[in-house]
Amino acid sequence: MELRKNKFGITGPVMIAIMDGVGLGRCDEGDAVFKARTSYIDGLSPHRLSQQLAAHGTAVGMPSDSDMGNSEVGHNCIGAGRIFDQGAKLVDNAVRSGRIFDSASWNTALEQVVRNNTTLHFLGLLSDGNVHSHIRHLFALLRRAAQDGVKKCRIHVLLDGRDVEKTSALRYIEELEAVLTELNQDDTRDFAIGSGGGRMTTTMDRYEADWPMVKRGWDTHVHGLGRSFPSARAAVETFRAESPGIIDQDLPAFVIARDARPIGTITDGDAVLTLNFRGDRMVEITQAFESDSFSAFDRGKRPNVFYAGMMQYDGDAMIPRHFLVEPPQIDSTLGEVMCAHGIRQFACSETQKYGHVTYFWNGNRSGYFNEKLETYVEIPSDNVPFNTRPEMKAVEITDATIQALDNEIFDFGRINYPNGDMVGHTGDFDATVASVECVDREVKRLAKEVVARQGALIITADHGNADDMGERDKKTGALKRDEFGGLVAKTSHSLNPVPFLVVMPEDAEAHFQSVRIANPGLGNLASTALTLMGFEAPELYMPSLLKLRQ
User: Fold this and answer.
1) Whole-prediction pTM value?
2) Which architecture does CATH list for 88-325?
3) 437: β partners
4) 399: exposed, middle or buried (Cβ count in 10 Å: 0-12, 13-18, 19+)
C-alpha cells in the first residue's frame, strides 16, 4: 500500500496515547472517570478537533452492538485502520453454520476419544461475556460431541466475574449443569465438570506476568491436585462462605471428586479443546500442553493428548498447532505500512498491555516488521492487586517515552496506560478514580514534551470500563444499591464511546480541521495519524478524522 505525501505534515513525532478503559460515561455516581479530577483531559474535550468514537460492537468487528469492546479488538482495529470480523463473530458464525464441526481439529479430537474410549476435555472461561468466550459455544460443542459418539467428557471451568457480573458464577454453572443433565440421560454417557477456578487465580495469565497462576491451573486440570469438592456449586459456595465479599475472578482453584478421587484428570489418549477465542490469556497454558522444551514450571508427567485451541492464538509462533476456527487475517496494518516506507516507530506499555501495542496492534503478529525501524519497550508490571497500586507503571511509561523522544528514535509512537482498565476490573471505585487521575497527569506530562518537539499527540481509549463502575437495572438503567446503600460494583467493560482528543502546536493546529463522518470509531485513527504526519489517508483504511484546511 503506497503512502502519498500531503501538502503539510507535523514536523515532529506523532503519537497515539491509549488510556485503556477510560470511556465517556453518564457522568453519575457510577462513573469513576467523571468523579476523577481530570483537569487536563476535561480541558481538551470541548476543542474543535475533539470527537467521540465508538469502541464496541460492530464498530470493532463484534457480532452485535450489545457486545462490549475489549483491548484485543480495540488495538486490532486501531492498528489495522479498518474493521475485521473478530474472534467472537468468527466463532459464532462457525458454530451457527456448523463449519466448526467440519474442521480437521474437531474431527481428529472426536476420532481419537471415540476410537480409544478416552475423555474429551473442554477448558476455558465459563460466561457469556463474549470477550474471551461464550457459554453458548460450549453448549453447542457438548451437544455435538454427544451426537458424534463421545461417552466421557470433562469441562474445566474458569469463572469470570470480570466481563460479566462479579458474582454470577453460579448462574453459569447451573446453565451448564442443566445441559449436562440433559446429555447424561443416555446412561452410557458421563459428561461432568472436572475442575475450575477464578480467572485471575487459575490458568489465565498473560504476557508471562504470573506463571504460578498457570502452574496452579495445570496441576488442577491435568493432575487433579488441589482442594476437592463434590460439585462446582459446592466449591463456589464454600469459598464465598470462607471469604465474604470475594468475587468470581478471585475464587481459588478447585477439583471435583467422586469417592475421594478427582474425576477430571487429563491422561494419555485424551483430547483437550479450549473454549477461549481470544488469545492473550491462553497462550501460556497452550505452551504447557504443547512445548517439548518447556521450563516455566515443573509439569510432572505431560500427558500425550490431542490439543486444539478454539482459534490459533499466535500465528507466528504457531500456538497452538491445531485449532477449530481460522483467525482473522489482518493485513496492511499501520505498523507494516510504516515500516515499508521507512518510518521509525516506538511502542511502549507495561507488561499487562505490552502485547496490545505490539502483537494486537500489528494484527496478531509477533515480533517486528523491521527491527531496525521499530523500538518496543516493556515496563515490567508489579505482581500485586492493581487497586493497591492504582498508579501502576504510568509514570515509568511516560519516562520511557520521554527518553525515546529525547533520543529522537521515532517518527510515530503508540503507548498504552493500562490503569483505567486493570484497576476498573477490580471493582474498587476509589482506586479506579485514583488510577484515572494518574493517567490524566501523565498524559499532560507527555503532551507537553511532544508539543515542545513540534509533534502531535492523539489521546483516546480502546474501550470503556472506569466510566461505568456500577451495576444497573436492565429495565430502568438505575444504579443498583447494596444493603448499605453503596453501589453494587461492576467489573466489566462498558458500551460507552471513547474520546478522540488532539494536542499539537498552535501554528500547526491552524492547518487542520475536523472531519465529521457518520459513526466514527477506532478504525479511523490510523488514517488520522497519517494525516497528521503529512500523508494522504490510504483508500484501504477508514477515513481520517482530520483534514487540511482549504
Assistant:
1) 0.79
2) 3-Layer(aba) Sandwich (3.40)
3) none
4) middle
